[in-house]
Write a structure and sequence with these properties.
There is one protein chain. The protein is α/β, with parallel strands linked by helices. 30% of the residues lie in helices and 25% in strands. It contains 12 helices and 22 strands. Strands 1, 2, 3, 4, 5, 6 and 17 form a 7-stranded mixed β-sheet that branches. The protein has a 5-stranded parallel β-sheet with strand order 8-15-9-10-11. Helix 6 links the parallel strand 10 and strand 11. Helix 3 packs antiparallel against helix 4 and helix 3 crosses helix 5. The longest helix is centred in the first third of the chain and has 25 residues. The relative contact order is 0.12. Bound molecules: nicotinamide-adenine-dinucleotide (NAD). Nicotinamide-adenine-dinucleotide binds next to helix 5, strand 12 and strand 18.
Length: 479
């Protein structure tokens, strides 16, 4: 008889591990299967986010941003530093230490909650049976009353341009360059391209980003995207829009120092060739569903390999649920975690749900970009009458004192009801400021509610307050 559980979660990323902990909290006998191991062969829980995504990239973004400040912004405070240098090895070791701490932390949380952590590759068979292939070659069979699929996602390759993980690299490789590349190409000016491009530019690389679309950051409010483009250009990120990559090939004989790969791209009908030391391909991610399901599992995939779910996270197979990057919706850790909690609560007889209208987005560049709700363009397309209020950080005392008077807050409310419909921010620490806006949307607040809420002075949050006042044309510190 296979070992049996109330719930088996496949995948230990933010969708899966959170679901497993919540299931255990609700009294369900739970196991979580994940194949990722650390250098010592122990389970390295936390999925892409903790191991090769959100956390290590934020560690590098922080290190490189400190270096950038030291070189370019401390002078404004009167701090003089000559010949600052960066120890890349130490920077990478710090990142690895943070990852180790957090992945180890999840193992401890599993122990504390009595979640069985199983290391191996899982495949779902018929009747919620799971086959686990362990690293040593052993194969185990488990079964459960409920299965939660949370396999996550992986970087997409460009057709005809495979990763060699040396010169043509994915986002994981780009977290571990031992040296700063002199010239770095980035294909795709999306979230990953901008974050990793920023890291290596701050450390000294000349970065060229090639983006297929004519619009920069199309999902972002136009006001904010324009400001972002201006700031990134000023920093020296060379972003080429409307440019489609045609070929990326190794340069056999190096003619010029630094050129190991040659990229050909077409822009406005002309083909351009550029040489780089390395090229990061950051053109999106796809669901990691290869080999996850046996044909008898009963779970259906769509044409792109995403697991099909209904609005209650149910797949086509009875009591098999799916969450996170491998199902519809944005590929964001916090979206996956909320889905995981909702599914656990549904399995335990509750009615957990996720409001997809209030999922916050953050791009961790400098300045940071954050938003929640709809953009002005989306609202116009939907025929919703709106009033918008903006307020620049340059008009707040705190941003000036911090030497970071960059960016703005834009709030959009319904023209008749004043209900907040969108918040769009670019500037210092907006990844934190967005939380207030998410709460406001979640509580269906009006712009007036925010305008009548006391915000501490002097803080960056005053820009949110003033933008709320500006919706009604009565910002105090704006002429
Ligand atoms: P993305 O969709 O954000 O950006 C990919 C970009 O590549 C797009 O702008 C697209 O137009 C462009 N592109 C596609 N094919 C191209 C081609 N042939 N030539 C040139 N450009 C091309 O995807 P990503 O940056 O790879 O990130 C993947 C996922 O991971 C996203 O869903 C993202 O939300 C998520 N993620 C989120 C964060 C965060 O929340 N801060 C960080 C990293 C990743």
């Amino acid at each position: 008889m296979p070992e049996s559980y109330d719930v088996i979660v496949i995948g230990g990323g933010p969708g899966g591990y959170v679901a497993a902990i919540r299931c255990a909290q609700l009294g369900l006998k739970t196991a979580c299967v994940d194949e990722r191991a650390d250098a010592r062969g122990r389970a390295s829980l936390g999925g892409t986010c903790l191991n090769v995504g959100c956390i290590p990239s934020k560690a590098l973004l922080d290190s490189s941003e400190q270096f950038e400040r030291l070189n370019h912004r401390f002078a404004g405070h009167g701090i003089r530093v000559d010949n600052a240098s960066m120890d890349i090895g130490k920077m990478l070791a710090r990142k690895d230490k943070i990852v180790g701490k957090l992945t180890g932390g999840i193992a401890l949380l599993f122990k504390a909650n009595a979640v069985d952590s199983i290391l191996g590759r899982a495949q779902l068979l018929e009747n919620r049976m799971v086959e686990v292939s362990e690293p040593g070659g052993a194969v185990r069979r488990l079964s459960a009353a409920h299965i939660i699929l949370a396999p996550g996602s992986q970087p997409l390759e460009l057709p005809g341009i495979p990763f060699d993980h040396d010169t043509v690299v994915d986002s994981t490789d780009a977290l571990g360059f031992a040296q700063v590349p002199a010239r770095l190409g980035v294909v795709g000016a999306g979230v990953i391209g901008l974050e990793l491009g920023s890291v290596w530019r701050r450390l000294g690389a000349e970065v060229v980003m090639v983006e297929a679309l004519d619009d920069f950051l199309p999902a972002v409010d136009r006001h904010i995207a324009r400001e972002a483009a201006r700031q990134f250009k000023r920093q020296g990120l060379d972003i080429r829009l409307g440019a489609t990559v045609q070929k990326v090939e190794k340069v056999e004989k190096r003619k010029k120092a630094g050129g190991a790969v040659r990229m050909a791209y077409r822009q406005k009908g002309r083909v351009h060739e550029v040489e780089f030391e390395r090229v990061i391909i950051a053109v999106g991610r796809g669901p990691a569903t290869d080999g996850l399901l046996s044909p008898s599992s009963g779970v259906a995939l769509d044409a792109r390999g995403f697991i099909e779910v209904d609005d209650r996270f149910r797949t086509a197979a009875d009591n098999v649920w799916a969450v996170g990057d491998a199902v519809r919706g944005p590929m964001l850790a916090h979206k996956g975690s909320e889905e995981g909690v909702a599914v656990a609560e549904r399995i335990a007889g509750g009615s957990g749900h996720v409001d997809f209208n209030t999922v916050p987005w953050v791009i961790y560049t400098a300045p940071e970009i954050a938003w929640v709700g709809r953009t002005e363009k989306q609202l116009a397309e939907q025929g919703v009458p709106v009033r918008a209020g903006t307020f620049p950080f340059a008009a707040t005392g705190r941003a000036l004192a911090m030497e970071e008077p960059v960016g703005m807050v834009k709030l959009i409310a319904h023209a008749h009801t004043d209900r907040l419909l969108g918040a769009h921010l670019i500037g210092p620490h907006v990844s934190e400021l967005i939380a207030e806006c998410v709460l406001a949307l979640e509580y269906q607040a009006s712009a007036e509610d925010l305008a009548r809420t006391i915000h501490a002075h002097p803080t960056l949050s005053e820009a949110v307050h003033e933008a709320a006042l500006a919706v009604d044309g009565r910002a105090i510190h704006k002429a």
